[in-house]
Amino acid sequence: MANRCILQIALLLSFSTISLSLSYKLLQAQQRSSSLACGELLKQLKGKPEYCLKDRMDFKFPEEIKQPQHFRKENAALVIQEMLQNILDIVRKNFSNTVWNETIVENLLVELHQQMDSLKTLLQEILEKKDITWEDTMIIPRLKGYYWRIRRHMKAKDNSICAWTVVQVELSRNFSFINRLTDYFQD
Amino acid sequence: MLGTAAAWAMLALLGPTALTLVAGASWGSPAASGGKSLKPPENVEVSIIDDDFTLKWNRRHESVRNVTFSADYITSEMDNWIKLPGCQHITGSKCSFSLLDINFYENITLRIRAEEENSTSSWYYVDSFIPFEKARLGPPEVHLEAEDKAIIIYFFRPGKKDDSSIWGMDTTGFSFSLVFWENSSQVEKQIKTNHYTYKIYNLSPETTYCLKAKARLLLQNRSGVCGPVYCINTTVEHKPPAPENVEVVTQNQSYVLKWDYEDRNVTFRAQWLYAFSKLIPGDNSDKWKQIPNCENVRTTYCVFPQNTFLKGSCVLRVQASDGNNTSFWSKEKNINTEMYYAIFPPDISVKSTSDSMRVFVTALKDPWNKFYPFIYEVIFWENTSNTERKIVAKEIDLTIPDLQPLRLYCVKARWHLLQDKWNKTSAFSAVVCEKTKPGASSTTWVVIGIFALLVIVICVVKILQRCLKYVFFPALKPPCSIDENFSEHSFGNLLLSTSEEQTEKCFIIENTQSVIIVEETDEIDEDCKKYDSQTSQDSGNYSNEDETLESQISEVLLQQEVLSPGPIS
């Protein structure tokens, strides 16, 4: 009886692992395509890069995310979600602003929301299982500090066209970092 | 941690006066500053709940009345200590402070000292901390709005409402959990949402409902404390009632929005909203947009194009109006546009053998193949029977085994997406029928038959060849009389025999004047004549050589060879 129970548990575990790894594969594909779409949308936002060179700034993106060395896929998912949330929060501030084309901003928000939504279910599962090593999440404050600097810059520049142009370029880079992080979904 | 604090102090104190440096270095021991012995406070603690920062400490000079306390702070982005606002010249043992415009995600260090008239104690350095990490979540603020059969809850995240809040950058990361009950009953309902506006439906009119809520930051694994209980009464039943059972289906590249309503003397209108708006706090009632073709409709449905919303999640709602009054909005219908995207059926082609059939299915097209693993289902049946057989496969090329020869089989196929939330399936492809090839046994017979025929043909050809050879190229056999003469030699030897002997024979023929022999062996006679004319041993060799070539060489060839000087010399 006990043996059968163990067998069932083992089977269940192996199936859940399979299903989780499959969904990581699916997520990777979705995130990549979505990042691409977001990058394209950001490109369509007409900034004024040539006028805004003096406004360029190093917001100090955390190096350990820029050049990820070792990431567990669960933590990669967590970092991506944190990034998406912050990007959405920055972009939505422009929603009623006249600097950017409202339709493009709206599409960008839709895309970001979709991307966050697809990660959410998985993250809930991870967090319930306590699959996150919280020591590794010390990276989160550093990441938030980076977005804080972006926001401070926008505030300091009074949401000028140049401030938004700098942010637009910065966010485009964000999506390439997200893509790099999705590589860890394969492990 | 202590080391970090000290390091911070050293770093920060490089700028300010040397006096402070001395005080900093002598931290931990009562400093004699200004001649009097004043001790710094002890057991200093910082607590953060939302945007309320509190510094608490224990005084060491309870008897001394006029001792006050002041605190400074420094962050890793700053060069100098700054006076902590709200914590200057405090007579008590705690102070509330605010940190304006600082990065809550960087380390911050606090120091505090006792002050009395002109003297000050040494600094007490508080372990550096990241405010965001240290902060605890308070309860969310809740606003309620009642309808007759629903309650709308507006959540406000904990902390200050503006961006200067410590949670200012987590607005989209909040979720709320509710405990909800009818006042007169003890049955509680748990609700979780990450929307800032949430509506509870299916309630009774004129009833009191209560709830309490707490906030949660999922990614930070942080749960807040429960807020106070809020109660509200639902209104009297409203007329006209709100439409019910809102549903969306697709038809010919359009959406059909349907709902139920009893009274037919009303008009309806429907609105939509991108679901991301629900993640944004505040009133989003102005974000709702009119659905085209769904304004002032008298039917309980409306049809609108699929490109009304781009993609992603949307919320739809319907309202009825009888001319004077409008109903409350219906229950909101959440849809994900992806759910309604059609997958087109595959194209199939088949190739049959006698007992199997290969089915080729076109690959799944964009964008589905990019995201979802898929399988396809192939259904086949014999044309004359009704029993269908099903095969599920992953490859686009599969073989259906165990079929009967010379029967008509039909096949159709469709896609199944795996792992998408809606178990999406395509329609079936067109039916393709093909007859299987003749059976394996008859093929064998055909092969055997062909083989037998081939053998017969070969035999016939052989025989025919032999006959022809016999007629046109009979075998060389000397007449009996000559044979007798050569009786002492074997025939093989005759062929291989030297020309010397043959020339001798020729001479014999001439000398004996045996006319009969000459006449009978015409060819030999000719040969002999030539040997004669040549009258050389070598030429005899030649003639002999020709004979060993077996076939009867024509006159011309012979002459050519005779004339050719090559071998003779």
TrEMBL record, chain A:
Protein name: Interferon beta
Intracellular or extracellular location(s): Secreted
Entry GO MF terms: cytokine activity; cytokine receptor binding
Species of provenance: Heterocephalus glaber
Gene Ontology CC: one annotated term: extracellular space
UniProt family annotation: Belongs to the alpha/beta interferon family.
Annotated signal peptide: 1-21
InterPro entries tied to this protein: 4_helix_cytokine-like_core, Interferon_alpha/beta/delta
Assembly, per entry: Monomer.
Single GO BP term: leukocyte activation
Transmembrane segments: none
Keywords in alphabetical order: Antiviral defense, Cytokine, Disulfide bond, Glycoprotein, Secreted, Signal
Lineage: Eukaryota, Metazoa, Chordata, Craniata, Vertebrata
From TrEMBL, chain B:
Pfam family, one: Tissue_fac
InterPro entries assigned: FN3_dom, FN3_sf, Ig-like_fold, Interferon/interleukin_rcp_dom, Type-II_Cytokine-TF_Rcpt
Parts of the chain that traverse the membrane: 445-464
Keywords in alphabetical order: Cell membrane, Disulfide bond, Endosome, Glycoprotein, Lipoprotein, Lysosome, Membrane, Palmitate, Phosphoprotein, Receptor, Repeat, Signal, Transmembrane, Transmembrane helix, Ubl conjugation
One GO cellular component term noted in the UniProt record for this chain: plasma membrane
Family listed: Belongs to the type II cytokine receptor family.
Official protein name in the record: Interferon alpha/beta receptor 1
Organism: Heterocephalus glaber (Naked mole rat)
